[in-house]
Description:
TransReg_Diox_bact_type; 434 Repressor (Amino-terminal Domain); mainly alpha; 2 domains; DNA-binding
Amino acid sequence: MEQRLATLIGNAVRASRQRLELTQADVAERVGIATEVYGRLERGHMLPSVRTLRKLCLVLSCSSDVLLGLSATATVAEDGAPQLAEDPPEYRERPEVRRLMRTVRKLDSPRLRLLGQVAHALER
């Protein structure tokens, strides 16, 4: 039962991620887990905690019923439109920009200053 549920959640999470055109790293960052952990979850090798499941629902704009296999569709509003959470502006960036930002966040202060100078020089 547990393995079947893990596989079900993994498939639903993957489908939702792909629908939003996000990478595994994008989702992992937004949920606050390691990319490797997210990959195991998506492959059905582990179950998410309740807290992680909730964050996945928010990040992937789908209900827990969809991720748990209780419903095949997302929640819809009275007018029939899908009821999805609005993404913050930084989540609407192109994948290349998101990858670059993940790398930049890991830089120490001197390297960050140097990168700023290079970016400023490229603007000219």
